[in-house]
């Protein structure tokens, strides 16, 4: 049975918008301004290599599909070769290798995906999708890489929701220049 893992770069004030600088956000690229250090880089590399598949929202998918195919190295090879699933009602012909569009109902599509893919199915970014997975109780693990910066504006990971969600802190550590990695699992 697959496990849905959401991983996010987030500011202290909860902003997840444009950490890489490709979306024309006023503070775009903010995650590159603070060093993750060797331990933070290893965390991200280990996360990629422990993934069986990617599950992405359309906007994140399109950004990744534009960037990753032209990159080289073991990290890029992993991303380019693993199965990718994109949740979208508008994308019809995905161009990135091994990509499948999930255009039905999120709850049913993800439940089916969890049955069919063993191991970790990782969601990078994809704020709207991440919120939907959390709201529908489809999230098995939430990994936050919290950067010591307040952006003051931008799309946030958490907003109004249908109710309280209880999580359990499974791991935490500080890396690089004050970045905190917080790993939460579902509270049973």
Task: Explain what you see.
The protein has 188 residues and is of the alpha/beta class. It has helices spanning 37-49, 58-67, 74-81, 106-116, 127-135, and strands at 2-11, 51-57, 84-87, 99-102, 119-124, 141-147, 167-175, 179-186. The longest helix has 13 residues, at 37-49. It is globular.
Strand percentage lies at: 25-35%
Q: Which strand order spans the largest sheet, edge to edge or round the barrel?
A: 4-3-2-5-1-6-8-7
Largest sheet: 8 strands, mixed
User: From the helix content, strand content and strand pairing, which structural class follows?
Assistant: alpha/beta
Helical stretch tally: 5
Order of helices and strands: EHEHHEEHEHEEE
List the helices and strands and how they pair.
Layout: E1 2-11, H1 37-49, E2 51-57, H2 58-67, H3 74-81, E3 84-87, E4 99-102, H4 106-116, E5 119-124, H5 127-135, E6 141-147, E7 167-175, E8 179-186
Parallel strand pairs: 1-5, 1-6, 2-3, 2-5, 3-4
Antiparallel strand pairs: 6-8, 7-8
Brief descriptors of the model:
single chain, 188 residues, alpha/beta, 8-stranded mixed β-sheet, 5 helices, 8 strands, 29% strand, globular
Task: State the gist of this model.
The chain has helices at 37-49, 58-67, 74-81, 106-116, 127-135; strands at 2-11, 51-57, 84-87, 99-102, 119-124, 141-147, 167-175, 179-186. It has 188 residues and is of the alpha/beta class.
């Amino acid at each position: 049975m697959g496990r849905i893992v959401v991983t996010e770069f987030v500011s202290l004030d909860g902003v997840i918008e444009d950490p890489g600088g490709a979306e024309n956000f006023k503070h775009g690229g903010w995650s590159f301004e603070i060093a993750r250090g060797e331990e933070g880089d290893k965390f991200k590399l280990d996360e990629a290599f422990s993934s069986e598949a990617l599950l992405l929202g359309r906007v994140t998918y399109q950004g990744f599909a534009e960037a990753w195919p032209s990159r080289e190295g073991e990290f890029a090879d992993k991303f380019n070769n693993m199965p990718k699933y994109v949740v979208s009602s508008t994308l019809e012909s995905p161009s990135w290798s091994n990509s499948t569009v999930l255009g039905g109902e999120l709850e049913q599509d993800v439940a089916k995906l969890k049955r069919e893919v063993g191991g970790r199915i990782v969601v990078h970014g994809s704020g709207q999708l991440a919120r939907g997975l959390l709201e529908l109780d489809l999230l098995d693990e939430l990994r936050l890489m919290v950067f010591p910066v307040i952006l003051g504006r931008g799309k946030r990971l958490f907003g109004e929701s249908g109710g309280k969600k209880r999580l359990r802190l499974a791991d935490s550590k500080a890396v690089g220049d004050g970045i905190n990695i917080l790993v939460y699992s579902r509270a049973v």
